[in-house]
Write a structure and sequence with these properties.
The complex is a heterodimer of chains A (442) and B (311).
Chain A lengths: L22 E2 L5 E5 L9 E2 L6 E2 L4 E4 L8 E2 L4 E10 L5 E9 L17 H10 L12 H5 L9 E6 L8 H8 L1 H14 L5 E6 L3 H12 L4 E6 L8 H9 L14 E5 H13 L5 E7 L7 E6 L4 H8 L8 E4 L6 E3 L12 E5 L1 H4 L12 H5 L6 H9 L3 H6 L10 H5 L6 H25 L1
Parallel strand pairs in A: 1-14, 9-10, 9-12, 10-11, 13-17
Antiparallel strand pairs in A: 2-8, 3-5, 4-7, 5-6, 7-8, 13-14, 15-16, 15-17
Chain B lengths: L18 H23 L1 H24 L10 H11 L7 H16 L12 H12 L1 H4 L16 H6 L8 H6 L11 H13 L6 H18 L2 H9 L3 H8 L10 H21 L6 H18 L11
Classes of the chains: A alpha/beta (442), B mainly alpha (311).
């Protein structure tokens, strides 16, 4: 095991909502549920306009192996099945349901029969659960390991290293019994011998709760990690908890690890107990434009504007609203964007925090280089991108960049480093494609 | 209500540190040395400092106007170049020569290469070297501090180079009561500034420790006398160079290892020039030479990428 000095940055915590139990938001007038909330093939709508649906009823079926089913999050009438533009600019089918305000569960809801590994994986697939920490990768694909003996450790990600967000913290505090059940499922069906929780040390209450689980289970341990961003990055967490390095282009399983987010795990357990699939999500609503930050449990597909209306009036007019935390979150152009399966926070910034500081010339201070968890060199990336030297970009391992934002956060010149890295990756991809085509022709 | 929403690529929060705040820290760190220079060499040093700063800022502003670039004097870097250049000049330097040096630093070394962040050589050092060659007489005059016993004399390094006894005591050397450029003599003031910069995390300890450490060790090796080695280390521009010039971001490597190598190289070249070269002092030349090597040091000391295979 080779040693690697892993860097990062100390970001402000802003965990204002850590002590706030989530409030349940009543059904909004209508929800818009996209079919492409996960990584992989979008789900295929199976309802049509006019259908009456109950909470937990299938509205979109998984369309392929790497895909995930989608369920109605409110009861009511389907009023539209149409294309919508997602926040990433991609077009996808979406189902609009007009709520009858009753939140009537679908009558077909019943706990799945799970007695062995295959049934467990089938149940996880049916649950519609995807990586709820933000990645959105279908969990059944991740857990559907061909050779279970390859699993050495299962890591439970409760790091929650992004500022503001406390939804995973609340899961650990309020849903400890779900997590405990989830652990038992992993032990039973995946034969997990070693389960490690990774939690940043700024969540003592959550750590205490998880230690209670570990106290009664010798396979489980809890590791309090220093609060250094990006502790919750998958490869970062694996290295911090096990000392293993996931090689470039490889998966965690290649080093014997599976990483599951705490909320994902809790949701698996509650599905297997109740049969109610993933239809709602606990999200943190915070940011300088929010008067009373809160944790709210909302039906998936609830538009941001409805969430804001529930949380209360603004402190100031929001000029930027982001899905997720401020380090990696995605800014959205309008409040009509819905809460997705993997949304864990909505952060609204007032004018002052919304504006990106002006870029000034790079002074070669090295903050980006010295804060990169993976030892990458954003200065060299920028130069290679400017020179369109794609071979150099590849040699500099630009594709290992996880876009955590440590470089751009620490840059005194406020260079738009992540935007450049994204562009460089895209241009490199194009270049490789063209190279491949040329080779084919030759 | 939701008109004109700002959409930008992550991250959406930023550290408070800006280029300007870093430059302000460097200026603050140079204030002890500037005050020491006025105490040691009198009001003439204040005139030199004011001349260089003013000249540098005006040249920068004029350059931007002429080439129709956005005005950059607000980033404070021209002030630092002026202040550092002044620190490298003897107190009795003619004002017009100081202005020529400022021109060389700001226009030739910095802006003709593309301005802040684009220059490969430290502007203040380049300015000083150009002056040293152009105005050798005035640049090598060893002005003695007003409180020193000797009215005129040579710098300790010149004395050592000529095989003479060093006139100043060790305490004099540490406090700066010896001949030399106005900002380089007071090791105490430079140390205070340097420690401030390290504490504020503006610079890393690697460069100054490697630079000063290697000068001391090589001098010890050369003289075989710890006291002499200490005199070598305290004389000339080692402290000024190690804390303020070899740590310039633009012209030095970015990683801790690279910075250590850079400091080491500076120390070695400084000693080679001092012991075997025809100039008594080699700090400026060593930093300039290492500036040229910076891209190579960056390449050789590049950090291994996490999980990166081979190459």
């Amino acid at each position: 095991m080779s040693f690697f000095r892993m860097n990062g940055v100390s970001v402000p915590h802003f965990k204002h909502t850590a002590a706030m139990k989530a409030e349940i938001m009543p059904a909004p007038a209508s929800v818009i549920i996209p079919m492409n909330m996960h990584i992989g093939a979008p789900a295929k709508p199976v309802v049509k306009v006019g259908d009456m649906v109950g909470v937990g009823q299938l509205i979109g079926e998984a369309n392929g192996f790497v895909s995930s089913p989608v369920y109605a999050s409110v009861s009511g009438k389907v009023t539209k099945v149409d294309k919508m533009v997602a926040s990433n600019g991609a077009m996808a089918d979406a189902v609009v349901i007009e709520s009858d305000g009753e939140m009537r569960p679908f009558e077909g809801i019943k706990p799945p029969t799970v007695t062995n590994f295959d049934e467990f994986i089938a149940a996880v697939r049916e649950s519609g659960i995807i990586g709820l920490g933000g990645a959105g990768f279908p969990t059944a694909v991740k857990l559907g390991v061909k050779d279970l003996s390859a699993i050495e450790e299962i890591l439970i990600n409760g790091a929650e290293c992004e500022p503001f967000i406390t939804s995973d913290t609340r899961t650990m505090i309020d849903r400890a019994s779900d997590i405990k059940e989830g652990i038992e499922l992993l032990e039973k069906y995946l034969g997990a011998k070693k389960i490690i929780f990774g939690i940043e040390n700024n969540k003592p209450e959550a750590i205490a709760k998880m230690n209670e689980i570990a106290a009664n289970d010798s396979a489980v341990s809890v590791k309090a990690l220093p609060s250094q961003y990006p502790q919750g990055g998958e490869k970062v967490l694996i290295y911090k908890l096990t000392g293993k390095m996931v090689p470039e282009g490889k998966l965690p399983l290649d080093v014997g690890c599976i990483v599951i987010n705490v909320t994902t795990l809790a949701t698996i357990a509650s599905y297997i107990r109740t049969g109610m699939p993933l239809t709602s999500k606990c999200i943190t609503v915070d940011g300088s434009a929010i008067k009373t930050p809160k944790n709210v449990i909302v039906p998936i597909g609830t538009r941001m504007k409805d969430v804001f209306a529930f949380v209360g009036e603004f402190k100031e007019t929001p000029k930027k609203v982001i899905y997720g935390g401020p380090m990696m979150g995605i800014a959205v152009p309008s409040f009509d964007q819905p809460v997705l399966k993997n949304t864990n926070a909505i952060i609204a910034f007032g004018k002052k925090d919304a504006e990106r500081p002006e870029e000034t010339p790079c002074i070669h201070c090295g903050n980006c280089v010295n804060s990169c968890p993976f030892g990458l060199n954003p200065i060299a990336f920028a130069k290679a991108l400017e020179l369109k030297d794609y071979e150099a970009l590849e040699a500099l391992k630009i594709n290992t960049c996880m876009e955590c934002g440590c470089c751009a956060y620490s840059c005194p010149a406020k260079r738009n480093i992540i935007a450049r890295n994204k562009l460089a990756k895209a241009e490199l991809r194009n270049y490789k494609q063209k190279q491949a085509e040329k080779e084919k022709e030759a | 209500m939701e008109e004109n929403m700002i959409v930008s690529v992550s991250p959406h929060i930023f550290s408070k540190r800006t280029t300007k705040s870093i430059m302000l820290d460097v200026i603050i760190a140079l204030i002890p040395a500037a005050i020491a220079s006025v105490i040691l060499f009198g009001m003439r040093s204040l005139l030199v400092i004011a001349t260089c700063i003013l000249a540098c800022v005006i040249f920068e502003a004029l350059f931007n106007i002429i080439v129709k670039k956005k005005q950059t004097i607000g980033d404070l870097t021209a002030i630092i170049t002026g202040l550092l250049l002044a620190m490298n000049l003897p107190a009795d330097i003619p004002v017009w020569q100081a202005i020529v040096g400022s021109f060389a630093a700001i226009i030739v070394a910095k802006n003709l290469f593309g301005g802040l962040g684009m220059n490969f050589a430290n502007p203040a050092i380049t300015g000083r070297i150009i002056m040293l060659i152009a105005f050798t007489g005035t640049m090598t005059s060893a002005v003695m501090p007003t409180m020193a016993d000797a009215v005129a004399g040579a710098t300790p390094l010149a004395q050592l180079s000529a095989g003479e006894e060093v006139g100043a005591s060790m305490l004099d050397m540490f406090l700066g009561i010896r001949g030399g450029a106005l900002g380089e003599t007071c090791a105490l003031a430079l140390l205070i500034g340097g420690i401030y910069l390290i504490a504020r995390k503006v610079i890393m300890w690697h460069t100054p420790v490697a630079f000063i450490g290697s000068v001391f060790l090589l001098s010890l090796l050369y003289t075989g006398d710890p006291e002499m080695a200490l005199i070598y280390t305290l004389s000339g521009g080692v402290f000024l160079g190690a804390f303020f010039m070899a740590t310039d971001y633009v012209t030095t490597p970015t990683t801790p290892v690279g910075r250590f190598v850079f400091g080491l190289g500076c120390g070695i070249i400084t000693c080679l020039i001092r012991f075997y070269g025809s100039y008594p002092e080699g700090v400026s030349f060593s930093i300039l030479l290492m500036n040229i090597l910076t891209p190579y040091i960056e390449k050789w000391t590049a950090k291994k990428v996490f999980g990166g295979a081979g190459k």
